[in-house]
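User: I'm curious whether this sequence folds into something compact or stays loose and floppy. Could you predict its structure so I can see for myself?
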Amino acid sequence: MAGTGVLVRLVLRRDRLWPALWVVLIAAFVYGTVSTIGTLMPTEEARREYAGKIAANPAVLLIQGPAYDLSVGAIAAQQRAAATMIFAALGSVLFLVRHTRSDEQAGRCDLIGAAPVGRHAPLTAALTVVLVADALLAVLITAVLAGAGMPFAGSLAWGLIAACGGWVAAGMAAVAVQVTPGARPAGLGALGLFFALYLLRGVSDVAAPWLGWAVPTGWLLRSRPFSGERWWAFALAAALAAVLVALAYRLAGRRDAGAGLLPERAGRVAAAAWLRTPLALAWRTQRATAVAWLVAAVLFGLALGFGGREAVKEFGASAGLAAWAARMGAEADPAQVFYGLVIYVFGAYTVSLYTVLAVSRLWQEETGGLAEAVLAGPTGRLRWAAGHLLVAVAVPAALLAVVGLLCGLGSGDVGGLLALTLPLLPAVWVVTGVTVCAYGLLGRAGAVAVWAVFGLVVALEFGWEIGLVTDAAFRLSPFAHVHYSALAEPGPATIAVLTVAAGVFTALGLTALGRRDIG
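Assistant: Here's the prediction. I'll summarize afterward.
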């Protein structure tokens, strides 16, 4: 571990603003939530009415979890504790991968290794900064909530939800950087696993309570801030994080620097004929990520199809959920509304996240210099961009088809499940088109605009689910038109309009790309 202290200072020198901003923004987000709840629901009766609504709304239970008490703190935790945990996990994974595997790929670890530092010093330095930042986040959240008049015990529990979520995610990332062949697969793999565990937690709150105790996200969100805290849940999560970190160190001693335990396959001496096109190059650079997402979709479809039968029975047996299903327009078939809800969340947001990441490869190639090398030959800008665009369009179609098919095979209704899944595709393509449009018009600055729009779409969904956003406002989101509820019954006209809108956004982006400077 020699040289760890020096490397910690180097990490903070390079990224001293990011951890501080990340911690402060999450704490401000928590404070804003508590202030809003106190203003919007000042009386216990108003909070009781809200709690009754979410208890009968599986969409809110799937995404946010239930409310365990009627206090302002408990309602605020129900709304935002999960989001706080996810934000902490996201920052932990990105920061850890950036200062470990990304540095290896860029050659910085070779320079560091030439100095008198230990073999594991870079990993230790990155983990130290991330774990301490998560701990400081817990302290700041506790202070902010206690300062706002919330009970100290509940404030501390909320802070520990964020910190322990970040620690577990950092442990997953530490293992992923040892196993995967590169930084990008490591980051996506760790985040994908964390979000998959979070989705399983959501399914447990809707229809299978036992499942929540099998995943760390379930432990943390059942710690019940402001409503009889369960402190042992944090001990479990911290122990899991420690086990993951120990495993990462053990694996780190078994791999070569710059390589993963799952090495990249050796390339051919001469490139195959099919690699001579921009589309083939785009597929080659995105293949590992696409295959990983497809494998995750296969596992998700099998688990939902073959493991969801009991959940459907419990879903249909609940009077409150049956009433909610009636409002959604599927009172005769609880299976349809259950599968429709879970598949909608997967298709609307998870698959959309993939398509944004796939198009963002254009940003990465432009900033990394690969685009310049490709465009120096006979390949034009539009052909280069079209290759990545086709991947971003085709892989989401495959993801949705795989989930619908496997879920249908497990539930015994292939046609019905495909009918629920495939109409989501044009809405996902609209997200693809908006991303291409932002890239073409704004270049690298378009990334900020894309994530802002994506966040707005998510906010509209959450707001509509809890009654704070009107139907008219929610229809600004492309997913409102393919929603699982009676709000949307996507017919051929709706599908056609969404597809045309996706095409228009894409055409605008490609036209702008052909006219602006690259780099």
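Summary: Residues 276 and 357 are 24 Å apart (CA to CA). Residues 381-411 form the longest helix (31 residues).
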